[in-house]
Amino acid sequence: LQQTSADLAYVGTTRLRRVYRVASADCDPVVCINKVTIYPASAAPKGIFVWMPLNRARRRGSADERMTEDEVGSASDVATDSEEDDERSASEVFGQIVDVFLREVRLENLQTTLETGRGAGLVRDARKHIQDQIRRQRHKIRDKILQSRLAWQKKTLDPPFCRFIDKMSFTVGILGSLITVCLLGRSSDLMVKWYTYLIVLLISLRIYLYRKEGYQYFLIDFCYFTTGLVYMYLYLYPKSSTLFVHVFAFANGPLAWAVPLWRNSLVFHDLDKLTSCAIHILPMLLTFQLRWFPSDSSLSICGDEWPSCGTVALKDIAVYPLLPYVIWQIAYTLKTQSKFLRLSKPVSVADDDLMQTSFKWLLSANEGPVFRILQKFPTLAAKEAAFIVLQFLFTFVTMVPTLLYFHSFAIHLIFLCLIITLAAWNGANFYVEVWTSRYKWANRAKLEAAARELSAVSQPDVYHGS
Question: Which stretches does the entry tag as region Disordered (predicted)?
Answer without folding.
Answer: 61-90
